[in-house]
Amino acid sequence: MFSEELKYQLDAMLETYNDNHSDAIDLICEHHLGVLGARDSRISSINEEGIHLSTSDGGSTLERTLEFLEMPNTNEEVVGVLLASLSDARSKAPSNVPKTKIELEFEKTRRLKTYFTEVFERRDVSSNILELKFKGGLGELPNLGNDAFLYFIVDSSGETDDFPPGFSMETFRRSGTKGLRRHYSGAYYTIREYGEDAIDVWFVRHADAGPLSQWAENVSVGGKAAIWGPRTSFKPPQNTNRYLFIADETAQPAVLSSIENLPDQCEYACLFETHDDSSSFELGDKSDFVEWIYRKQEKAGEGTGLIKKISELKLDTENLYIFGAGETRQMSAIRRQLMSSQNLSSDQITMVGYWSRSSL
Ligand SMILES: Cc1cc2nc3c(=O)[nH]c(=O)nc-3n(C[C@H](O)[C@H](O)[C@H](O)COP(=O)(O)OP(=O)(O)OC[C@H]3O[C@@H](n4cnc5c(N)ncnc54)[C@H](O)[C@@H]3O)c2cc1C
Question: If you ran DSSP here, which 8-state letter would residue 98 be given?
């Protein structure tokens, strides 16, 4: 039987794939499962037997299943089954079938490098955001601007003071739960600001602190980090001249950096969710364009104020692009709300799950 926590995580994964990767599910249905002209494909459910898909051949709705050979124990193992099916579908598809978003993303990641840097300065941005400046080893890190993010790998055990020779994202990824993974942990973080051979990164202090937020809290100047990237998700269509940004604490650095990159004549507005006014911060000349929404008694990821605010919006959607990021379920609900209530095409909205609350 799946644990309650795994069921909860799989629900969030299902929403993410249905919202963002229907092209990959269509490809799997057509070329792995043999449904000619598959379209409107979705994951309908995931249980101990497999991943259940619903698709259409243009006439009727069809149900198909990617069966598990062994019952998966983790979210990653379920994603592994989907990706293996996608890879099989690609090997059978004619060469002119366009790449899916996932495949294009994989191609990009193959070219990314691992950089080694260290903590240079610490500063509190607000009561729950800590800024670390990293300096050194970053001279060749490309400056992508906007929401550029990196995968940070740190020694969360505190037992080593440097990385082993030849260490890279690839060695970290391939190491199982023992060995390297006993010492090192990783998570994605955004570059708040690029400097000369330096970057600033904002770490959210959250309840139930995980290895990365704990490391950031405890690390001293000189502490080492390996970083892999950068990549971005911010992709406004051409002709966009108005922007709506939606962010919890984890995505505020991405939004602030994106705003700083906008051409002068663009309009923008931001909805920033945070705990309370001690966790909001000075915005300088951006303060007129940002509305703070406080969760107060509600837990992170469970705030109701943001979606309420969004349901009341009257948007002129011409040339508008919406970028939002934060807790996965919250962002999926906001995306569904916006898509059903506003006149938006799917390329006008990017909602990214930056973290997932647990079921507890
Ligand atoms: C592209 C991208 C960019 C990101 N940029 C940033 C960034 O700039 N700054 C930043 O702080 N985070 C950012 N995140 C989110 C960050 O990767 C996650 O919050 C990550 O889970 C932190 O790892 P951890 O080891 O602290 O906690 P984990 O071990 O992953 O989680 C431990 C527990 O904490 C909970 N949790 C995790 N994050 C939060 C949170 N923010 N609030 C409340 N509970 C939480 C989890 O549900 C879990 O129960 C980004 C994520 C992505 C995908």
Answer: P
